[in-house]
Task: structure prediction
Amino acid sequence: MSIDIYWRIGTHGDQQSLRRRVSSRGEWAPVVPGSITPGVRNGRRDGYSYVEHMADVARASESSGFVGGLLPSFPFTDDPWAAAAVLARETTSYRFMIAYQPGFLHPVQAARMSASLQRATGGRVVYNIISGGGGPAQLWWGDRVDHDDRYARTSEFLDVLKGVWSGGPFDYQGRFYQVEGAGLPEPLARQPFPEIYFSGSSKAAIEAAGRHADYYLSWLEPFPALAAKFAQVREHSTALGRAPKFAVRIDVLARETEQAAWDEIRRGWAHVDPAALRSADGDSVGWLRSQSFVSWPVRDHRELEVSPNVWGGFHLLRGGPAFGLVGSYQQVAERLDELIGLGVDAFILAGVPHLEEAYRVGEEVLPLLRGHDIRQHSPLPPVSVTKGSI
Amino acid sequence: MAAYPDFLVTVPTQGDGRDPLRRDRGEWQPGARRPLPPFVTDLRPGASSAFDHLAQVGRAAEIAAIGGAFVPFDSAGEESLVVAAGLLRQSRHLRVVAGFHPGIATPVYAAKFSASLQRFTGNRLGWQLDVDLDPAVARSQGDFLPGADRYARAEEFLTVAKGVWHEEGYTYEGRFYQVLAGGFQSPNSGLPFPRVYLTGTSPEALALSARHADVHLFTADQDVETGIGELAAQSAQEGRPVEYGLRLPVLARDDDEEAWAEARRLWDLAGGVGEGLPDPDPRTRLWGGFGRIAGPGASGLVGSYETVAAGLRGYLGQGVTTFVLESRPHIEETYRLGERLLPLFAKEIEHVH
Result:
């Protein structure tokens, strides 16, 4: 067993801290003195774009012990394929976990891009396949396919992608895709096929994950809910003779002491707009689930701590999912160990600001992990969901 | 008084780390780098070199729009000219000042090396000539010249370097150096000479600066006001302007309380547990506690960004226009200085389109 620990590379700028929800890195904010990529020199933009900061984050996390970085994809972000192509030249061992939705890109083109990137990077491409949060964002991309149908499409997409991967000729007649005499040319053919991290909390997603996932990836949720989700995926996979591994995407706020960590949260909480304390849009089951673990409305930041160090308010301090870990270096390491005990094989960690926190988490938290022992000695906790449902 | 002073950050020559005594970044204390547990995939071995970290420090300064980077001469550390060459190569805007002493080479060779660097990097190299090295260090570098003679030699060194740089057919006959029909030819001629940074408060040091320095660097534990007064008088006599700079460590945070809490944490880590923190000087705001957490003799500024900026403005008022700041860990703190401290010196915050 080897645990793969990834970092996240923000693809839409970054904040200086969780204290103020104000972006100052990347072109998503006004360019003023003190801005990063682009910066200001002598009253003019310095000519840099946000990818230069992404490169700093990639190198910081590469050197502090992470195996790679997740590049998220949303309408407002930079594109992960383009970012991976550029950042590949700036790193040596770092893997790029490219988030993408199969419907937006033809599977033959996805195969071509992946194979070329594999050749350029020595096989450092990893897929994070998302089938969609739905709602307005899906139509923004020009995609009208229904939620459950998107998983059927993902299955066809992967059938075609894998079909052309080894060279041709490959024919396919599906509901969503048709190809004839397809296949990657030499020498693009037969590169190592990227590992697949597969996300989605709905029934359709879990069924599709059973067929395609090397890793089933979830946002952090309260541990019993997570265990229940993993059990469902395991069940579907076993029926198909497959055994995916499990991965969790977790925001981390770790400090020397627990007190110092909560002080950081408290400073950010002071700026949260009370009206923002509840919002849910789109048809993402994962998001609705994450909101169901907390009894709203909430008055104090500690009310969002659903179990020790598991805090559900990160979305109020920065864009992104709700749950993450808050605590001392030791406590955060212990919670990660518990997740390893639950069967987690890979983590995608993140912290704001991503550059500075990559060094901190890599230097201070990761060396404290003891997961090995814990998985050997602790039994899996009972499979039950306290609140919410799948 | 300049509206927007020039800022440089100091590059670590013997590794870097989160805490004062930790040097686990940059391979200077390999044992201090805590390994990942064996069950965690580690792709790093063999994949990074000591220079990768220095390059990251340089990039941080470049990306955070800091004016320049200073790589001091350190006989026990990384070689400053080589580091400077790498940092210059990996940046577009950053000026890099390399510290070295006159004993490292003939002035002709130092100039030749520098002409290449100027050509390769858009003329962004600076020289900080270290004249008064610790005598034991100087001897360890093969240099046995004592006392005031070192300034006489430095004078000749700069004269000859500038001579061959600017003049074809240059000839010089001195106590320390001789050149016959020297001088650079195209394309190594006609370049801007590296900006010269000099230091010291002795009469010899100030006299040398009056004739050769573009910037004279003080440290915060020196009597900056008196030094500037004497040097201003001498440079007026020489008929050439000299700018004034200050080298100092800083610890800046969102508010004073947080900055002092961090000072306390670093003080404790550096062996000060149970000892009271020294008070900052009420007039200059300088804090001598950096002597323990940053290096012997260091005095610097602690406080909120506004407090530190006010301390620096005090020096601006005395005529200082260049600040060479030092703060660890270098990457994170360089971002912090670029994002939070330097904008306080922009004349006004303007959107740039």
Summary: The longest helix of chain B spans residues 149-166. The mean pLDDT of chain B is 92. Residues 189 and 315 of chain B are 37 Å apart (CA to CA).
